[in-house]
Design goal:
- The structure is a single chain.
- By secondary structure, the chain is an alpha/beta fold.
- The protein folds into 5 domains: 165 residues, Orthogonal Bundle (Arc Repressor Mutant, subunit A), CATH 1.10.10; 81 residues, Tetratricopeptide repeat domain (Serine Threonine Protein Phosphatase 5, Tetratricopeptide repeat, Alpha Horseshoe), CATH 1.25.40; 145 residues, P-loop containing nucleotide triphosphate hydrolases (Rossmann fold); 71 residues, no CATH class; 77 residues, Arc Repressor Mutant, subunit A (Orthogonal Bundle).
- Helix content is 48%, strand content 10%.
- The chain contains 25 helices and 14 strands.
- Strands 7-9-10-11-8-12 form a 6-stranded parallel sheet, sandwiched between helices.
- It starts with 15 loop residues before the first strand and ends with a helix.
- The N terminus is likely disordered.
C-alpha cells in the first residue's frame, strides 16, 4: 500500500528532516534531534527506508530483534512508536499513523534524503528520455551528492536493515554508472576520472564501471592504463568467478587497442557546462599490506574465502581460518582476498600481526589497542582484560569491518579478538588448524600444483627462462615442495644470478643440505622458519619423537599403516599422532588414490640435521 507524502513546508523552523544516505540523522531546523536507543533507531530506520508504505508489525519486529523477539515485542514497539512521535517527529507527529497490519510514516522529498534521491533519479530518467543529456547528468550528480557515506552503518548488524542498505547501495552504484556514461558522452572524461577510479576499487566486478574507466583513461591519453584496466578485470573475473569479460567489454578493449575512431572522445557541444564528479568520502581505513601483483593459483581457495565472507544475512560476522604448511602463502591469500572485499566491508579493513618479529605471541592488550586505534577509537582503554574486551566488542559491534588476524598461535589467542556481534568479517591465518574455533570456515593450504608452481616461478624470473628449460623449472619447484615462499626464495636467487642455468640450480638444490640452507636463511619475508626444531614447542615430547621417526621416510608419501609399522604403534594411536602433526602443519595430506601423508622435504631434512 502506498500513500503520497504531504506537501513539503520547507523553511519552517519546526520542520524535521531525516537522512538515511549515510549515518541515520534527524534535524529540526539547524539542530540535531536525538533518536533514542538502538532498537528505537532500528525501528525508525525501517520506517524511513519504506517511507509512504505500510510496514507490518512483524517486519518491524524482525528489523529490531531479527528472529528472536521477546514476548513483549508488540508492546515494546508501541512504546517506541509513541516515543518517536513525541520526541523525534514533534510537530510532525501526525506523519506516523497506525495502518493495519502495521504503521505508515508519511514523508515528502524535502523531509527525507532518500525520497529526494529517488525524485532526482526520476528527473534524470525523464531528461535522458527527452535527449537532454546535460540536464540528466546534472540531476544524477545532485542525487549522488546526497550520499554522505555508508548508509546507517551502526544499524546494519540487523539483517533486515542490512538488506535494505544493500538495495540502496545497488541503486546508488547503478546511478553512478548512468552518470559516468552520460559524463563520457558529454566529453567530461578528465573530470570524472578520480571518482570512477575510486568506485572501481570498491566494485571490481562491475563491467559498466570498468568500461567507463577504460574509456575515460583512453580519452585522457592514457591508453596503456586503459588496457591494463581491462587486463585487471579479466584476471579478476577468471580468478574469482571462472568467467571471461563480456563481449561488450572485449569489443571496447579491441577498439582501444586498434585506436578505433568509435571509442574516441566526442566533440563537446558548445555551451555544455563541464559536469563535476560526485564525491563520496567514507573515511574508512584500508590498512592492508599490498596485494602481490604476481599472486598465482589458489583459485578454488580464494573463491571459498570470498564466498564465506560475502554472506548476506548474518547476526554475527563470518570467520574464515586459513591454515597450512609454513610458506604455503596463507598471509598472501588472506590479503589477496581481503582486497577484494572492500565493497562488502565499507567501514574498512585492518591487518594485525599476532606475533612479534621474534615469533612470540603479542600481548592481547597490545593487539586490541592497535585495532581500536586503527578504527578511530581515541578514548581511554581499560587495563582489566574483561573490561577492555567488552569495550573492544562494543566498539566493533556498530561497524562493518574486515579484520585480518595474521599468524594466530591458538584458539585461545584469537577468541578475545573476535567481534561479539555485528557484521564484521574475520580472516585468521595460522600454522594450526584452529579446529576448535566455533562457527568458522576452514581453508587449508599445501603446496601449489606443478603447473601453478612453474607459473609463479616464471612470473618471478621471466616466463621465457622457464620455457627454455621446463624440466629444470619443474625440478626446482618440486624441490621447494610447491610452497610459494620457497619458490619465491629460489626465484629471488635466480633473478639476481641471471647467468645461473636452471639445470645447474636444480641440481644444486637437489642436495638436502643445500636445500635447507637455501630455504631457511635469508632476509625479511624471504625466509622459511630456521629449522624443524622451530616447531618443537608446538607439540608434546612424545609426538615430537614420533615425528623424528617419521622423517626417516623422507618426503615420500606414506599411508597410515606404513606409519604405524615404523612407529611400532596401532593404527589408532598413529592416526592420533598424525592428526596432531597435521594440526601444526608438520605433516600434510598427499595426493593419491588412497589416503596418505607426507612431510615437507625441507622440514624432514632439517629435522634429521644435527646442526639445525
Amino acid at each position: 500500500m502506498h500513500a503520497p507524502g504531504p506537501a513539503a513546508s520547507a523553511g519552517a523552523a519546526d520542520d524535521t528532516t531525516f537522512a538515511v544516505l549515510g549515518p541515520l540523522e534527524a534535524r529540526r531546523g539547524e539542530q540535531p534531534v536525538a533518536l533514542g536507543p538502538f532498537k528505537q533507531r532500528a525501528m525508525l530506520a525501517m520506517l524511513l527506508c519504506r517511507a509512504n508504505r505500510v510496514v507490518s508489525v512483524s517486519t518491524l519486529s524482525e528489523a529490531v530483534w531479527d528472529d528472536a523477539p521477546p514476548r513483549t515485542a508488540h508492546k515494546n514497539l508501541q512504546v517506541y512508536i509513541a516515543t518517536v512521535r513525541r520526541d523525534v517527529l514533534g510537530p510532525m507527529r501526525g506523519h506516523l499513523v497506525h495502518s493495519p497490519p502495521g504503521y505508515l510514516l508519511r514523508m515528502g522529498p524535502d523531509e527525507l534524503d532518500l525520497l529526494r534521491f529517488a525524485k532526482l533519479l526520476e528527473t534524470a530518467r525523464a531528461a535522458a528520455g527527452r535527449g537532454e543529456s546535460p540536464s540528466a547528468a546534472r540531476a544524477l550528480r545532485d542525487a549522488l551528492g546526497l550520499w554522505r557515506g555508508a548508509p546507517m552503518p551502526d544499524l546494519t548488524v540487523m539483517p533486515l536493515i542490512a538488506s535494505e542498505v544493500t538495495a540502496l547501495e545497488e541503486t546508488r552504484i547503478s546511478a553512478f554508472e548512468d552518470w559516468a556514461e552520460l559524463a563520457l558522452a558529454l566529453g567530461d572524461h578528465v573530470g570524472m576520472l578520480p571518482s570512477i577510479q575510486r568506485e572501481v576499487e570498491s566494485h571490481p566486478l562491475r563491467e559498466r564501471l570498468r568500461s567507463a574507466q577504460m574509456l575515460a583513461l583512453h580519452r585522457s591519453g592514457r591508453q596503456a592504463e586503459a588496457l591494463a584496466a581491462y587486463e585487471s578485470m579479466r584476471q579478476t573475473l577468471s580468478r574469482d568467478l571462472g568467467l571471461r569479460p563480456s563481449p561488450v567489454l572485449e569489443r571496447l578493449y579491441q577498439g582501444i587497442l586498434t585506436a578505433d575512431p568509435k571509442v574516441a572522445a566526442p566533440l563537446t557541444p558548445q555551451g555544455v557546462v563541464t559536469i563535476s564528479p560526485p564525491s563520496r568520502e567514507t573515511g574508512a581505513p584500508t590498512l592492508l599490506p599490498r596485494d602481490l601483483s604476481d599472486f598465482t593459483g589458489r583459485g578454488a581457495e580464494v573463491r571459498e574465502v570470498l564466498s564465506a565472507l560475502r554472506v548476506g544475512r548474518t547476526v554475527s560476522g563470518p570467520i574464515v581460518v586459513v591454515s597450512g604448511l609454513s610458506g604455503s602463502g596463507k598471509t598472501a591469500l588472506a590479503v589477496h582476498a581481503a582486497h577484494r572485499l572492500r565493497e562488502r566491508f565499507p567501514d574498512g579493513q585492518v591487518f594485525v600481526k599476532l606475533r612479534d618479529m621474534w615469533g612470540q605471541a603479542r600481548p592481547l592488550s597490545s593487539v586490541q589497542a592497535e585495532v581500536l586505534g586503527a578504527t578511530g577509537y581515541n578514548g581511554e582503554i581499560p587495563s582489566a582484560e574483561g573490561s577492555r574486551t567488552a569495550l573492544y566488542r562494543s566498539w566493533l559491534a556498530d561497524r562493518r569491518m574486515l579484520l585480518v588476524l595474521d599468524d594466530a598461535s591458538s584458539e585461545r589467542a584469537v577468541r578475545p579478538l573476535l567481534p561479539g556481534a555485528g557484521a564484521n568479517g574475520v580472516i585468521i591465518t595460522s600454522w594450526r588448524r584452529l579446529s576448535a574455533l566455533e562457527s568458522a570456515r576452514h581453508v587449508e593450504l599445501g603446496g601449489l600444483p606443478a603447473t601453478e608452481a612453474a607459473e609463479l616461478l616464471g612470473k618471478i624470473i621471466g616466463s621465457g627462462r622457464v620455457e627454455s628449460d621446463p624440466g629444470a623449472a619443474e625440478r626446482i619447484v618440486e624441490a621447494c615442495g610447491g610452497l610459494p615462499l620457497g619458490i619465491r626464495i629460489a626465484g629471488a636467487r635466480l633473478s639476481v644470478q641471471r647467468h645461473l642455468e636452471l639445470a645447474r640450480y636444480a641440481e644444486w638444490i637437489s642436495d638436502d643440505q643445500v636445500l635447507v640452507k637455501e630455504l631457511t636463511y635469508g632476509e625479511g619475508d624471504l625466509v622459511l622458519p630456521g629449522s624443524a626444531t622451530t616447531y618443537r614447542h608446538e607439540v608434546d615430547r612424545s609426538t615430537w619423537s614420533a615425528f623424528l621417526q617419521l622423517t626417516e621416510l623422507g618426503s615420500e608419501p606414506f599411508t597410515l599403516e606404513e606409519g604405524a609399522v615404523l612407529l611400532g604403534l596401532s593404527t589408532w594411536e598413529t592416526a592420533r599422532i598424525i592428526d596432531q602433526l597435521m594440526d601444526v602443519a608438520m605433516v600434510a595430506s598427499a595426493d593419491g588414490p588412497s589416503p596418505s601423508y607426507r612431510i615437507p622435504r625441507w622440514l624432514a631434512v632439517s629435522a634429521r640435521t644435527p646442526s639445525h
